[in-house]
């Protein structure tokens, strides 16, 4: 009798998971995304890690709309002798973004945590109190949390770049989105446990 109850319970659980898989997978994808409405700030910070330019373009859009007077581009990855941030600044200049308001940061960082520490220090030195943090949608929850924890006293407003590569309601149907979700969840869990 106990065995039968156990088998029935497993069958019910399996059925619930099967029929609710879209909702579960959507929640798994949506959990990574935590965005806020853009608002006036002292600075716009665009995180590195986006070679397609969507983060940089969102930063430029926010700058042009008058939500801040300065735009900092992060990204220390070297490509043919230039950093990602320098390449992003050149890219934005070709798109009509005001070059005199853009700073390409050259911090030797290789993680969101290192970025948060280095950029937070620079912001405090310059008297920045509130900033817009621009990143890809799947990276918003973790990066917002990391920046807030590494830079207490500074107000971060997390803004998502227009990212069609990670649709939260069907990320599991595209190979690149599956990889993105896997790596972002791995990084999120690693951050939770302090690795």
So what's the overall shape?
Answer: globular
Q: For the report, how would you describe the main beta sheet?
A: 5 strands, parallel
CATH-defined superfamily of the largest domain: HUPs
Which fold name fills CATH's third level, the topology of the largest domain?
Answer: Rossmann fold
CATH class of the largest domain: Alpha Beta
Helix content: 40-55%
Strand order of the largest sheet: 5-2-1-6-7
Count of domain modules: 2
Beta-strand percentage range: 5-15%
- The string of secondary-structure elements, in order, is HHEHEEEHEHEHEH
Radius of gyration equals 20 Å
Q: Structural class of the secondary structure composition? A: alpha/beta
Total DSSP helices: 7
Question: How far apart are the termini?
Answer: 45 Å
